[in-house]
Amino acid sequence: MATMYFAKININEEIYEVYKHSEKVEEIFGKLLSKKWQEETIVHTQGNKLNQDSDKEEVYKFINIDMVYDKGYLVGRLIEIFRDDLSLYDRNKDDINSISQSELSRAIPFYFDWKNEIVAFIPSKKFSRKKFLVCFEELLNKIYGEQMFSVYLKNNIGDLKRAVNSFSKVSEIEITLVPPNSNKEEFDDLFPKSGDELEETQGTKFYQKISAPHSKTGLNVQASLFQRMITGVAKGFGQFTALGKDSSGNTKRFSSDKSAPQRKYIKESSRNSFNEVIEYGRAGIIEILEEEIRRKSDD
Q1: Which has the closest alpha carbon to 2: 282, 273, 233?
Q2: If residue 90 lies in a helix (H) or strand (E), which one and from where to where?
Q3: CA-closest candidate to residue 281, choices 63, 97, 113
Q4: Buried b (16+ CB within 10 A) or exposed e, 163-198
Q5: What CA–CA distance (Å, rounded) separates 52 from 37?
């Protein structure tokens, strides 16, 4: 069994221009899609604590990119290219055979629905969802030519609320939010009292830390401020962490990225089939969007 996750591609750098001119979204994604995705690479260096001279370089790039313009999506793989000291075990000889130090790789297949600004991807134990998000964002911005995009996991709002409500006391919450792509109405929903003032600052990423370190009851997580922000995090506009106590009085920490991501369980073999990646990705995105519409109508 494999797990497919979903992330929101947020236009960050020119978001206030998007609010003024809605056609700007199509223009920005049009420019991104016109680029040659497979030509750009990024390099991360992995330090060796025992030997600083043997730092390992890991190269990341896109391969197998197939853009389907009439249906508004592309499919491909994000690969990690690396070198390592490996050998093969020969059971018959009960011995090992060395492998030539050619470039090795790990890959994450993904389905990017640019009309809905959501990417679906299937990480592995060796190539985590956190690393995918970092590298996908970095590559998008390098391909585009400037720091245009922020990428955040979409989260299950039911799991988020259950996790927060499981605390006996929440003493601290840290939240990171970016303005939504869709329209200024969603931005004002997140910041109803200060949306215009925040837009005036031209800030494109907002950090907030709220704590009640000496309160016996802790923060009121049912407050409308927190509930709006939880909704924003669920939609993929940011992330949050909570610190407090569980019912036994033990310290408890919660992170939205680790504990409440939107996910879809699929066959392990599906990661090797682009047709199945597309099928599962499209179905998962439809389910997420339909749930968001239902919740909005209920509110």
Answers
A1: 273
A2: strand 87-90
A3: 113
A4: bbeebebbbbbebbbbbbbeebebbbebbeeebeeb
A5: 33
User: Would you say 230 and 222 are in contact if contact means Cβ atoms under 8 Å apart?
Assistant: no
Q: CA–CA separation, 130 vs 23, rounded Å? A: 31
What pLDDT does residue 20 have?
84
Strands 2-11 and 149-153, bridge-based pairing: antiparallel
List pLDDT tens digits, range 192-246: 555 566 677 777 888 889 999 888 889 998 998 888 888 899 999 999 899 999 9
Task: Report d(CA 151, CA 97) in Å as an integer.
Answer: 42
Q: Residue 94: left if φ>0, alpha if ψ -120 to 50, beta else—which one? A: left
Mean pLDDT of 275-283: 97
Owner of token pair 């998007």? 18
